């Protein structure tokens, strides 16, 4: 994770990781795991957020042609949590409603990644278009 | 050590493989190939995958595990996933991935015990043969 940058921005720390190669998927997972530990997540919440991140980072790499992951520590008040932003400049998601449905995949996947990731977090925002690519913002609170 | 760097141990007619805390995509695919080859070569009757250490199973890893179980079944062996951590189980349920056709056990010990008793019809995925 030598090329991850760490910046201090106002209230919460922000770090950014590139998603350009297959190894970056693993690095991203490690970084999210470390952030959940630091933020004080319980074991189940840790696993859910790392898994959601894994799905979205892989989508970014496989379907979006790569991009980046930004990890943001949200600090109290009122609540502590983590916000992850996964973005790419890829082709965008053609049929968003279908993409969020379990079992829909334009590739060889099981098609549970996007819908599953949404269920694993507290907040889920998705912006996609052929011009802007795809950006997913997920948030999970510590408690 | 196998090509995938996941050790595969032979205990009589059972192959026992211990996965690490991480299953990255490349390792998973190599491991699936390696394991199928070993099942075919040794004529193993069962495969126990020790996933006690594995702390994330995402949809990619889940797909590989189901594929491993299917391949092994086609080669005449049962696969038991042993020792899944409870946060991983909870997460898989939320992903909507119940790992159809894959036998599970609480631990490697339970798995080996399970394998020494005849298969009950309920846990027979896709009509594999009792032996
Ligand atoms: N970042 C992205 N850019 C473009 N298309 C995307 C992106 N993320 C998802 N998609 C589209 O949405 C579909 C559903 O995504 P989802 O993650 O649910 O399934 P999958 O990646 O195909 O399979 P898996 O179950 O292995 O994740 C994808 O097949 C793809 O067409
Ligand atoms: Mg996906």
Automatic annotation (TrEMBL), chain A:
One of its GO terms (molecular function) is protein serine/threonine kinase activity. Pfam families: HATPase_c. Residues 46-139 form the Histidine kinase/HSP90-like ATPase domain. Coiled coil: none annotated. Its EC number is 2.7.11.1. CDD domains: HATPase_RsbT-like. It is an enzyme of class 2 (transferase). This is Serine/threonine-protein kinase RsbT. The lineage of its organism: Bacteria, Bacillati, Actinomycetota, Actinomycetes, Streptosporangiales.
TrEMBL record, chain B:
It comes from the Bacteria. The lineage of its organism: Bacteria, Bacillati, Actinomycetota, Actinomycetes, Streptosporangiales. Residues 4-115 form the STAS domain. InterPro entries: Bact_StressResp_Reg (IPR051932), STAS_dom (IPR002645), STAS_dom_sf (IPR036513). It comes from Thermocatellispora tengchongensis. This is RsbT antagonist protein RsbS.
